[in-house]
């Protein structure tokens, strides 16, 4: 009897461990007593995100292979490295794209405040006719599922954590026009998002950007390895003020007249296709998390749910250099090199060509500061502005000796305690040698500059790409 009991117990444990998530399990696993996976034998094809290009896996020689004008051997170490395939933004993140992030955070905060004020909801028509229409979805649904009822009874989680019972109703439109405020309670909530009258310049209503904070969680692999588990210390929670520092145009150049850029660069439509600047390393990572969440939420909203997407992130320093070379081995510049001009005498990037001269073309003028993305020719992988325009944040920490101790397979430095982060590509204010694909630079991760932006990448599962390698 004891043996029979143990067999039954082991069978029940097996059935529990094999059931999970949103799937249902009936009977024993397998088919005809054989272990045959039930998933459909369909090949997985990686979906290329909008505005990204696929960078094939390959190996290359990283570092300053031909020259080192800075005469610093620690920056010029050569190392053959192998890089896995990934998607990469074809251009630097623009003001218009980053403003979508800003608007999402703004609307999320406003909707949360409205939902808290709405309580149990009201008699609105469901289209924003009263503040009651902005109540949490669970408050407005009559027939709750058992899971929703369970969440209601839990009373929410820790402050700042995701609470499924407090899901916002994004179908109800927000009215930011004061003439269209539906009621006094609505007006009171939305006006709390703006600077008080005593802090305004003139009568202009301005959002209090210090309230625009994005809260998210990320996995700390170092903590997971140290404790040999993905426990509470594995997840790190951050709340980041995400509005870019527009004062960088003045702070970076004390003795220059850059006030028009300070006042207009980020929000004016004329600069919508220009690369966003004044963004710290932490803010760039928060943007990556937002982009992942945006795609994940969409995939979940579909009737036939798609698989959770691979995360968006900043490129590692070696990924960036490999992509910048465009498939060419020993490429001094993204277009090959070693010259900064083409056969017609036109400069191939937005940079500072001569001392005191920030114009790439003395006759046509071109660009004094940053340029709209995609104005200069792309490299062999289809990437624009991998040299000049703005320097770009990478995920990697900066260390002069990184070539010595990092792996030859997808090398990167991940020291979270190091505030120095690698910045690559050179910018509109830099001279030619800073644009070289092997040239390294760094900046403190909490610093915002008028010449540093970023672009994102997304991993591609090895099984989702053809076995093509680049070794030239």
Automatic annotation (TrEMBL):
SUPFAM superfamilies: C-type lectin-like. Residues 1-19 form the signal peptide. Coiled coil: none annotated. NCBIfam families: GldK. This is Gliding motility lipoprotein GldK. InterPro entries: CTDL_fold, Glid_motil-assoc_lipo_GldK, Sulfatase_Mod_Factor_Kinase, SUMF_dom, SUMF_sf. It holds the Pfam family FGE-sulfatase. Residues 51-457 form the Sulfatase-modifying factor enzyme-like domain. Keywords: Lipoprotein, Signal. It comes from the Bacteria.
